[in-house]
Write a structure and sequence with these properties.
Elements (H helix, E strand, L loop, with lengths): L4 E16 L6 E15 L2 E5 L3 E6 L5 E4 L1 H10 L3 H17 L1
Antiparallel strand pairs: 1-2, 2-3, 2-4, 4-5
Amino acid sequence: MFVIFGLQRKPQHLASISSMCAVCQVRDRQELFSVRTRVRLFFVPAVPLPTTYRTTCAECRSSVTVSAEKADMLLANAPRADERASTEVLAAEGSAAA
């Protein structure tokens, strides 16, 4: 009898933040992701495993695992999408007026 099992990892983009990279020590944009892992049995997701959080540096493309508490702190300090859109519009209007 054969048992077919495997792991399925699904990353979900949470935010873009400006932070210091732990690897290259450059202050640049970091992408924050949550990665959910599930054990699959016969192509059916069976057992969810704990969610991990990772940041990826835009400069050196390295990825570092962070704790859930640090991910929550980074997410709380990250600008929301509506704030980013309003600052981009203001910047575009300012450059058009000049």
